């Protein structure tokens, strides 16, 4: 009985070893792809053009409000000026919250689109090169990976290719 159990365990270990030998694992640095790809750069430019002026205006208003706060400290300000300052601060805080909410919603949509694009590109590269698994090294689970397993540049190139081909919503050919 012991011999049969030992043989069964040995056979299982041997089969697992054979399965692992045939498994091809690749790694991708998603952070690199998400920041250095053409669609990521395009999204950054779109966000700057869409929200840059409003951000600058809010920063300007914040500086002006800080100057008013300093002026109120230095003198015996009237209650009227203090109330006016509080109202201005409340208004600016509300504008800032609304601005942050708008930006956050757009950024979330961009991140979702980017994740979809990167997953598609990783899938395409893995299929083309015969990989069984592709792991994100920025997720924190990979402590070491041989350089031959690194697919980051391949996935980055595939993302850019998909982007330029118009296969993705919002890409250059899709904008026309």
Fold and architecture overview:
With 176 residues, the chain is mainly alpha-helical. The chain has a single domain, classed as 2-Layer Sandwich (Protein Binding, DinI Protein, Chain A). The chain contains six helices and two strands. Strands 1-2 form a two-stranded parallel sheet. α3 packs antiparallel against α4. The termini are far apart. 15% of the residues are buried. The model has no long low-confidence stretch (mean pLDDT 82).
Concise summary:
It contains six helices and two strands.
Low-confidence stretches: none
The total domain count is 1
What is the CATH-assigned architecture?
A: 2-Layer Sandwich
End-to-end Cα distance: 73 Å
The level-1 CATH class: Alpha Beta
| Rg calc | 27 Å
Summing up helix and strand content along with how strands pair, one would put the structural category as mainly alpha
CATH topology: Protein Binding, DinI Protein, Chain A
Average pLDDT across residues? 82
Portion in strands: under 5%
Spatial strand sequence of the major β-sheet: 1-2
CATH superfamily: Skp domain
Order of helices and strands: HEHHHEHH
How many beta-strand elements? 2
Overall 3D form: elongated
Give the number of helices: 6
Largest sheet: 2 strands, parallel
- Percent helix range: over 70%
Helix and strand arrangement:
Layout: H1 2-22, E1 25-28, H2 30-36, H3 38-74, H4 79-129, E2 133-136, H5 152-165, H6 172-175
Parallel strand pairs: 1-2
Helix pairs in contact: 2-3, 2-5, 3-4, 4-5
What key phrases describe this protein's structure?
176 residues; mainly alpha; Protein Binding, DinI Protein, Chain A; two-stranded parallel sheet; 76% helix; elongated
């Amino acid at each position: 009985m012991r011999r049969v159990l030992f043989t069964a365990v040995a056979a299982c270990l041997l089969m697992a070893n054979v399965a692992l030998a045939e498994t091809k694992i690749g790694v991708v640095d998603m952070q690199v792809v998400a920041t250095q790809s053409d669609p990521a750069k395009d999204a950054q430019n779109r966000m700057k053009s869409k929200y840059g002026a409003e951000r600058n205006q809010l920063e300007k208003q914040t500086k002006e409000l800080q100057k008013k706060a300093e002026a109120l400290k230095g003198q015996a300000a009237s209650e009227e000026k203090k109330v006016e300052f509080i109202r201005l601060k409340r208004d600016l805080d509300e504008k800032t919250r609304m601005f942050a909410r708008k930006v956050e919603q757009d950024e979330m949509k961009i991140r979702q689109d980017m994740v979809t694009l990167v997953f598609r590109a990783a899938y395409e590269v893995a299929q083309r090169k015969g990989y069984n698994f592709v792991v994100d090294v920025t997720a924190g689970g990979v402590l070491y990976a041989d350089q031959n397993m690194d697919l980051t540049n391949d996935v980055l190139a595939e993302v850019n290719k998909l982007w330029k081909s118009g296969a993705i919503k919002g890409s250059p050919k899709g904008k026309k």
